[in-house]
Amino acid sequence: MATSTAHNVNLEAAMVLTPPPLADYLVVAPLAIGFVFGALCLMTRKNIDRQPYIAISGLVLMLLADIGLFWHVLQNGTVVMTMGRWLPPFGITFVADMLGATFALVAGIVGLAGGVYALEDVDRTGRRYGFYPFLLLMLSGVTAAFLTGDIFNLYVWFEVLLIGSFGLLVLGSEREQLDGATKYALLNLIATTLFLLAVAYMYGMFGTLNMADISRKAAGLRDTGPLFTIAALFLFAFAMKAAAFPVNFWLPASYHTPRIVVSGLFAGLLTKVGVYALLRIFLTLFDVERDALAGTIAIVAVATMVLGAMGALAQNDIRRLLGYLVISGIGMMLAGLALGSQTGLSGAVFYAAHSMVVMTALYFLAGMIGERMNGFALNEAGGLYSRVPWLAAIALILFLSVSGLPPFSGLWPKAFLVKASLDVGAWWLAFSILLTGLLTTIAVGRTFAFAFWRESTRETDDTDTTRPTNGGRAVAGSLIALTLLSVAVGIYPEPVIRVTDRIASELLTSGSYVDAVFPAEEPMVEEPSADEGEAQE
Amino acid sequence: METAMAVLTGLFFATSFYLMLSRHIIRILLGVTILGNAVNLTIFTTGRITREIPPIIPDDAVMPIEAIANPLPQALVLTAIVISFSFFAFLLVLVFRSYQELGTDDTDEMRDAEPRDEPAPPLGY
Amino acid sequence: MRTLIFRTVAPFLSSLMILFSVFVLLRGHNEPGGGFIGGLIAASALAIYGIAFGVSPVRRAIRFHPMALSGFGLLLAAIAGILSLFSGVPFLTGLWVYPRLFGVELALSTPLIFDIGVYFVVFGSITSTALALEERERD
Asked: N or C terminus: fewer CB in 10 A for chain C?
């Protein structure tokens, strides 16, 4: 509260007094845009024909802001914006380093593709139930989670995106959806509550919630029991969010139940937030603890990727098959985290970006297949190649890409991960990555063979063309755009590799993150005592 | 005081884990709610329990005059309470709806999304 | 619950509670209170009205759909943050003006706008949940 009675207090120590450059507002622009347009969509609830236009323009603006932010960070390094003028660690800080900006950019691309796909996939009832507001809310939550520099704020954004995802998941309220949503909601809520528990312990240890502040204070508390406990709790909570084995069972139970565009967005965005949080916590904050936990993470990674691919092999429903492929991909990213080397991290981040685009595209593809087959069951599929050859081409590209075969975007991150594993002599990790690639190839190859190559099993199929299909221009356009992105990255990966290499080196030297938040300060090695949280005189 | 709070928090955690081990969805939901409260108590305790003097600086001072309560855990707990309250409201509606639709609150019987009789994928043409 | 006494009292009680919620909202500026608790009080006022007269009179009474009110609140809160862009201070910084109205100095600020936004968000979303639950009870 501002009082008119002025004290002679030196505000410089606690507040930002110089106006921040205009470009710094880019850090908060994506989520401010998301919230404003989400609010507008909520307010125009009655006018559901106009709502998509508002939402799409909001998503386009968000993507533009993401691009601007990415460019700004690429040119000028990490950007920091402090809320409400209070200097860190007192105010909540938003920090956009290369990792956050890249993830936000890919999330923006995926979100826009989802919004466009939904133009035809989500009907008027779905819109009336608030598809677009929830989409914008979830996307804002995801973007903000990538950009926040405060651990408690990260928890809040997790909850925001969770609320948005709940709304999207129960859109339609069919039996199947309610069943899936119940399990999804309860297990995810438990995961975020455990995350909050870890935050509570961390606050008790450090007396601060600012990630950069924790990072520099953790240096004095290395190799102590409490820090390992906190790190292990974080690993558990975020592994649950990321759907790593053995806490992945909520994902195959729920991801195939909502509308296909919602499944695609979830597959692209939500588990990756968990992966992002793991990267952030274990590299920027707890790098010593990561080394100690690397063995555990590697075992989890191997189990996740191999069992995920095996689960995909056992599925008859295309959407459930894709759900297991999402899990398998999480294993790949965890492998990079376990390796923790420059190449490994670069591969993990590359794989995450690739997976966000390709998994969303695969769900969109499944939607188009299901639209044309009246269902997603493989044992009833067939005859699509002769009916829609261009879809077969796209399917082939995406299937090769997700299996990590050349010349598409899945190849490079896998090559990086295999090389990184062999560099440290972890031949079993490299073997698992390659084995997963093989199993994935079999699973998606079989899908291609049954859905596209096989002759149609039903005679009625060809006469069924009178049925209104949703496969219009918006649906096809968003699918093709995502596929082209995967092809382009696969053929010309150098720019992406440069970016992911820079992310990896930034992650490995957490000092750059700290320096961005606390500029022009001598490295403060204040005694990080637990009394920090106690009342100060 | 901290010891008493720690014991109480432990009891909360134990209760919530016990409830979450149940197969019945309403008990799991209650367990999750208690888990949220247990975590809130943990935040409160890790913020150190100090004296009950409100953290307000008088008009003519620039610093608190005496030792004050730590306001940050209270802000955190308040935020967490608000969030868990809204989640509880949402989940209650969701669980109630799925109980109505599926006719059961036993998680073992809730197999609509993953039916038991789902066929295996075809092994050949 | 539709007794004569309750139905007679409910309108007065509801309007009193709405008035009180606004009071709590404005009081929250310097003293305990604020947008969240104010919104909750207002939502419970409508819940009481709904118990007494059914859900559709409530929906008619508030004119807009509760979720639309929620959206309005979200917009207000976002605008309160964005205003700081135009004065060259970081996002969400509190900005104050002291206009003199009828000889009284009024302290208006962006935190107040934000708080009113919170009021509407809470009011809208809780009312919408409560009405949905009350509606379901009757079928």
From this structure: C
